[in-house]
Amino acid sequence: EALPDDLSTFFVDFGRGALKQTKIPTDFAILGDGFFVVDRGGQQLLTRAGNFTLDASGGLISQDGYPVLTAEGTPVQVTGDLPWTVNERGMLVQAGDSTPLALRKPRSLGDLVKVGQNLYSPLAETIPLAGAERRVRSGWLEQSGVSPTTEMMELIEASRAFEANAQLIRSQDQMIGTLVNRVL
């Protein structure tokens, strides 16, 4: 069966996933609350997926090709062959200059509407992360917070409950059928 076009009908668990070291300089994981900000056609969207890449002109982009934004709202740009890093405070450091990545959080996670793979549109104004809240780990990615074992156990439990209810309905149907036949 096809999935509905409105992806906001799905429940999203914003629990933090385990971190995995990738040693790829364009991979980033946010420690704690917050989201990276990307630009999709003039709309600022939030994501926790920090598996970014550099395009041909040195722009930091998401896997979908959307520019990652700085705290000022401009696309993150890495200059040519100069070495660069993103430090633990989410600052892009290159040639002595520091540029903060846009790290924001919604007032409530209920203010986020899923608009695609790992992308969320905020329904209300978001709050920039400041000071000690700005914690980023370069060369790491946050893994999915879903536990396959737990989800499989819940699926089996739901399947068993469905089977028990179906059997109950069949028994009730047979009993009503027997009563109707006796009355007639």
Structure description:
A hairpin with a 2-residue loop joins strand 3 and strand 4 (43-47). The model has no long low-confidence stretch (mean pLDDT 87). The chain is of the alpha+beta class and 184 residues long. The chain is built from 1 helix and 15 strands; from the N terminus they run E-E-E-E-E-E-E-E-E-E-E-E-E-E-E-H.
Which ranges are low-confidence, i.e. pLDDT below 50, for 5 or more consecutive residues? none
**What summary fits the major beta sheet?**
4 strands, antiparallel
Determine the structural class based on helices, strands and strand pairing: alpha+beta
Shape: elongated
What is the radius of gyration?
Answer: 24 Å
**How much beta, percentage-wise?**
25-35%
User: Which range best describes the helical content: under 10%, 10-25%, 25-40%, 40-55%, 55-70% or over 70%?
Assistant: 10-25%
- Pattern of helices and strands: EEEEEEEEEEEEEEEH
Total beta-strand segments: 15
Mean pLDDT: 87
- How many helices? 1
Query: What strand order characterises the main sheet?
Result: 4-3-10-13
Question: Span between N and C termini?
Answer: 43 Å
Topology:
Layout: E1 19-21, E2 28-30, E3 35-40, E4 43-47, E5 53-54, E6 60-61, E7 84-86, E8 91-94, E9 97-100, E10 103-106, E11 112-116, E12 119-122, E13 126-128, E14 136-138, E15 140-142, H1 148-183
Antiparallel strand pairs: 1-15, 2-14, 3-4, 3-10, 5-6, 7-8, 8-9, 10-13, 11-12
